[in-house]
Amino acid sequence: MTRLLRYAEPYFWLILAAVALLFGQAMCDLALPDFMSDIVNEGIANGDTNTIIGIGSKMILISLAGGALSISVGYLASRVGAGIGQQIRLDLFDKVESFSNVEFDKFSTSSLITRTTNDVTQVQTLIIMMIRLIFYAPIMGVGGIIHAVNNSASMSWIIVLAIIVLVGIIATLFSFALPKFKIIQTLVDRLNQVVRENLSGMLVTRAFNTQAFEEERFDKENKTLTDTNLFVNRTMAAMMPMMMLLMNLITVLIVWVGSYQVSAFKIDVGQMMAYMQYVMQIIMAFLMMSMMFIMIPRSSVSAVRIADVLETEPQIKNRLDAVPFKSSKGILKFEHVSFRYPGAEEDVLHDIDFTASPGQTTAFIGSTGSGKSTVANLIPRFYDVTQGKITIDDVDIRDMELHSLRSQLGYVPQKSVLFSGTIDSNLRYADKDASQEEILSGAHIAQAMEFIDSRPEGFDTPISQGGSNVSGGQKQRLSIARALVKKPQIYIFDDSFSALDFKTDSALRSALKKETGHSTVILIAQRISTIMNAEQIMVLEAGQIVGKGTHEELMKACTVYREIALSQLSKEELNE
């Protein structure tokens, strides 16, 4: 929370200027009832038109001045609120970019989106309203009490009565509404999650004809959020008619009591009318403060949620003595590595030990859930090992600067991810300064030119968000081409050939071998045909290496590998 308050520091002088303008606006508003009293007592009572015009002109000028000050305050408040909101969103985005998979497991994607959008909007709105009301309302309240007492001290008990009733109404309404504020943002998270799942899985929903189920699921979350918001809004909406009733009753009470005061010559009619206006200003001041008390609880929940993200320290970060990546060979070693996911009861990898050398392909194969992708995720430090260490040229990757480590890795994830833009912009994502020849080379090796040339726009072909307008195989080929454009020392292909047909797979691997001949290649696959020519094959089973060697060696010595191979290819295809 302290960090959030620091965002206001750059705007200190704007806030101070706004407060000064608010003070001037309040003085203008407080002066009007006295002028009205003078018109009644001096102008109307004596039938003096000149006095009425003179005082009325002053009231018009004061009203115009108050309006100008109010507009200026609104402008300054908007500048401060928008500026702080912009900086909070920027810092949230920067913080989320530094998160490892551990933090993403803690904060769901839907929750992070809500915190970056809806929660920041809540805080931004609070800041604007605070500047406009939290300073203005007390000035009006205190000033109104002073002026009212000066006009008629004998009717001060009416002010006390009005404040007691007002506070009672506000406290009663808040006791019902405040608990609901704390759960609204959580409900927004849930609704956001359901919407994201439904939109991303629309084709699956249609394929299984589960539209009715998804509508019911959305309707349930939507109805819960709607009912909660309706309860809060109806509760708070009751405040305004109650306030109007209170002001009207107080007006009647002032007229009734004031009429006796006027008849007793203790006050005049103008003072009674001025007193009435001051009491209305006092009630309105308390009403404005009550509106702040409505917004503060909800915004405080949002502020806490934002602070939770900003104050979360990524578990995977640079050490104080981290060194830049200076490898010239690219020898990758796993030295007795074990790994356990945060919160898990047992390891998913057990004593993984191997060396991947430049100019060789080190392949991994195994059943689903055997830990193949986990091995790939440990190399870029998406997670850190639980035991053992991973080294590149005998330097522990935990001692390297993250940016320089990852800059030497060409990572193609299991789930191909493309960004909205064009084919060219997606390939340049690996290296924005890549030449056109490097772009063409990467696309040729990845066997992507066939479908690129078939598009009229070529490399300028638009790519939708997530690559939804290209096929799975095309996404994989573009992802591979993107990694090739980077020209890293170590390539990591995490089941990146699964959507390719056998012909394209074979052509791609043949071209890839020539391109990556001097690099270290980590290849994870389900197909025997994809990995059978690798210089070194690791067979994983339940997080352990149960076989290591070439295809021929494993066919003879590893039962698990042999079973996988025979389930996919015939003995003739396996050269047995």
Question: What does this molecule look like?
Answer:
The protein has about 575 residues and is an alpha/beta fold. The chain has 21 helices and 12 strands. It has helices spanning about 1-5, 10-45, 50-95, 100-105, 110-135, 135-150, 155-200, 200-205, 210-235, 240-265, 270-310, 370-380, 400-405, 425, 435-445, 450-455, 470-485, 500-515, 530, 550-555, 560-570, and strands at about 330-340, 350-355, 360-365, 385-390, 395, 410, 420, 460-465, 490-495, 520-525, 535-540, 545-550. The strands form 3 sheets. Strands 6-9-10-3-11-12 form a 6-stranded mixed sheet, sandwiched between helices. A 4-stranded antiparallel sheet has the order 2-1-4-5, with helices on one face. It has a two-stranded antiparallel ribbon with strand order 7-8. Helix 5 (about 110-135) runs antiparallel to helix 11. The model has no long low-confidence stretch (mean pLDDT about 85).
* CATH architecture term of the largest domain: Up-down Bundle
Radius of gyration: 36 Å
The total tally of domains equals 3
Query: For the report, how would you describe the main beta sheet?
Result: 6 strands, mixed
Mean pLDDT score = 83
The neighbouring-strand order within the major sheet is 6-9-10-3-11-12
Number of DSSP helical runs: 21
Please state roughly what percent of the residues sit in beta strands, choosing from under 5%, 5-15%, 15-25%, 25-35%, 35-45% or over 45%.
5-15%
Number of strands: 12
The low-pLDDT segments are none
Q: Could you say which structural class the secondary elements and strand pairing correspond to? A: alpha/beta
Q: In the CATH hierarchy, what is the class of the largest domain? A: Mainly Alpha
Shape: elongated
CATH superfamily of the largest domain: ABC transporter type 1, transmembrane domain
What's the end-to-end separation, in Å? 68 Å
Task: Briefly note the CATH topology name of the largest domain.
Answer: ABC transporter transmembrane region fold
Residue share in helix:
55-70%
